Amino acid sequence: MKFRKIITIGLAAMMAVSAMSISAFAAESVSVTEPNNIRIGVEPRAVTPSTTVNLNTKENSQTVPWSVYSGFGYWKIHLTNKSDGTIKVRLLKGSPTGAQIGETMVIPANQGLPFYCEEGKPLSTGAYYLEVTSDGNHNLAGELYYKFGSDYESIL
Length: 156
Description:
Order of helices and strands: HEEEEEEEEH
Radius of gyration: 27 Å
């Protein structure tokens, strides 16, 4: 009889803890939908997956075509330079010989650096090209990564 009483009390305690857990979870779920946490008229951030480009180790320059799609004008480039020379990256608009956008990105030998678009200045939709060049004494070596986002914070 004592055993049955112990089991009954134990089961009652487990049910009480379960009920409290469910109540606590429900209270947390409700707080997420309070009006102060809702941002009306703001679309969720979106970012493309990172794209990897292996640099051509048999060349000292490489052109990478880039397409900027509507709503994804914010960009991040990260270049890992595995060569013994400096690598430079220029962003060109419209064609491989088009006008340069922004400053030339310089990556010292055996280093990796990220570069970002200017906050509040996304690229317009269209065709762009990344011109990647070595110092002329060494071939390219390393990887270039890039991604696009719907706003500046999404690419950080």
